[in-house]
Design goal:
alpha+beta; Nucleoside Triphosphate Pyrophosphohydrolase; 2 domains; 6-stranded mixed sheet
């Protein structure tokens, strides 16, 4: 069993609404001395929503950090104390106006564990019924529903470039292959 990390010093550099940045001087297992920059994030959900006709729900919005409009699975941060399934239902309704009849947790993953603590939970949502979306005031969201064939084409042509979306869609496509 490896020895735990020893933190020699930890300095908070920035604390924002969504993330915090700290710099840690540490000794890692194996006696590796290092300075690590860590972006802390409370975690998030990614929603793989299936409409009644079998299409997958994606949202398209402008992402300032990369200066592009991106097609993505519905996603959002966990609120303090919120469970992933509740967050998935909330985000799906806010961004698309869909209520999910059933949600199930598929798996969790780290988007960029070299620098980021964010743990993402992939949740499958089915039994969708339409209601009214209520995106945040700073969000302008386009909702689309796509067949698996169309999603494959979008992935091959690089129309879908978001990592969490690629992870979710790859899981879905592998799951469909195992069914056949």
């Amino acid at each position: 069993m490896p020895k735990p990390v020893r933190v020699l010093e930890s300095r908070e550099i920035y604390k924002g609404r969504v993330i915090q940045l700290r710099v840690d001087n540490i000794i890692e297992p194996g006696r590796v001395k290092a300075v690590r920059e860590v972006v802390q994030h409370a975690g998030s959900v990614v929603v793989l929503a299936h409409s009644s006709d079998g299409r997958i729900v994606l949202v398209r919005q402008y992402r300032y950090a990369v200066r592009e409009f991106l097609w993505e699975l519905v996603a959002g941060s966990l609120e303090p104390g919120e469970r992933p399934l509740a967050a998935a239902r909330r985000e799906l309704l806010e961004e698309t106006g869909y209520h999910a009849g059933k949600c199930r947790l598929l798996f969790d993953f780290f988007s960029s564990p070299g620098i980021l603590t964010e743990r993402m939970f992939l949740v499958e949502a089915t039994g969708l019924t339409q209601s009214k979306a209520s995106p945040d005031p700073d969000e302008k969201i386009e909702v689309g529903r796509f067949s698996l064939a169309k999603l494959r084409k979008m992935m091959r042509s690089r129309e879908i470039r978001d990592g969490k979306t690629l992870a979710g869609l790859m899981w879905l496509m592998l799951d469909k292959l195992s069914e056949s």
